[in-house]
Write a structure and sequence with these properties.
RRM domain-containing protein, 4-stranded antiparallel beta sheet, 38% helix, RRM_dom, pre-mRNA intronic binding, two-stranded antiparallel sheet
Length: 294
């Protein structure tokens, strides 16, 4: 029969509950309403709809109701995972470091399983026996390690020495990266300072007569800006001192073509003032002062 469907339930209560809910469904004006009726039992049906009590208990609890997953887990579902390897554990470590909620849930699970807290130095005795038999150390990922895989078995002492050398190489590389980043920052600041006019040249501009930087604060007040100046220009200049800045260029009112730049602290703001006061932007030197208002 086209347009008909028969649904079997485990008991009468489940059928009544479905009957009430289906009758409340409204698909809209342009669709035919569904008609729900009780059907007579099929005497030729051989399959039993009765489930074990354990299955009914599992079906009572949804998987994650808070996240909209209101259906129960499949009682016949079984998981089979591979044995832990250095790569798998390394990937799990990256996931824990990048997802704070996952890290918290793992700590909760360890607490429920009465496992010792992982805070503190690494306990070498707690290492899995599967990993102890492997040649690669679990701490080194494939993209970080430059050590060639050796076919001959190595002693634990030699392995620890390899790990130590690899760690020292990573630390040295990180220090070199930070030093290079600092050098680039210094170069940017020096380039900005080289575009500033000297004191005797600034004295010729009205904005620098009786110039007083004011009391130090984390906010700078910038005037004598050209009308072509944009917030992007100021953002590019002052981002050399800190990435955490806020630029506000006024376009209307008494403070038109004047700007305020907020820094994370007074120390950074002071360096920015000393390095950019007199900076020539669009053929006009900027007059930089400490802002009085917060």
């Amino acid at each position: 029969m086209p347009g008909f469907v028969f649904i079997d339930f485990i008991d009468r209560n489940a059928a009544e509950d479905a009957y009430k809910k289906l009758n409340k469904i409204n698909f809209g004006l342009y669709y035919k309403p569904i008609k729900v009726e009780y059907a007579k039992p099929d005497p030729n049906r051989q399959a039993s709809l009765e489930l074990p009590q354990t299955s009914l208990e599992q079906m009572a609890e949804p998987i994650a109701p808070l996240h909209g997953i209101n259906y129960p887990a499949n009682p016949n579902l079984r998981y089979q995972y591979p044995d832990p390897t250095p790569d798998i554990l390394s990937n799990i470590s990256h996931a824990l470091a990048s997802v704070p909620r996952l890290y918290t849930q793992v700590l909760h699970l360890m607490n429920k399983m009465n496992m010792p807290p992982p805070f503190g130095p690494m306990d070498k005795k707690s290492q899995s026996t599967i990993l102890k038999k492997r040649k690669e150390d679990a701490l080194l990922s494939s993209d970080e390690s430059e050590l060639e895989e050796q076919e001959d078995a190595t002693t634990s002492k030699e392995q620890e020495e390899r790990v130590k050398q690899a760690r020292q190489a990573r630390i040295a590389a990180e220090k070199q990266r930070l030093a290079l980043k600092k050098t680039k920052t210094i170069d940017k600041v020096q380039q900005i300072q080289s575009k500033c006019l000297a004191s005797h040249e600034l004295a010729q501009w009205p904005a620098f007569k009786a110039y007083d930087a004011g009391e130090p604060s984390a906010r700078l007040y910038i005037k004598n800006l050209h009308k072509k100046c944009s917030e992007q220009d100021l953002q590019q200049i002052y981002s050399a001192f800190s990435k955490d800045i806020q630029v506000n260029l006024m376009r209307k009112g008494k403070l038109r073509d004047q700007a305020f730049v907020t820094f994370p602290d007074e120390k950074v703001a002071k360096l920015a003032l000393e390095s950019t006061n007199g900076y020539v932007l669009h053929d006009r030197p900027m007059a930089v002062l400490f802002s009085k208002s917060k």
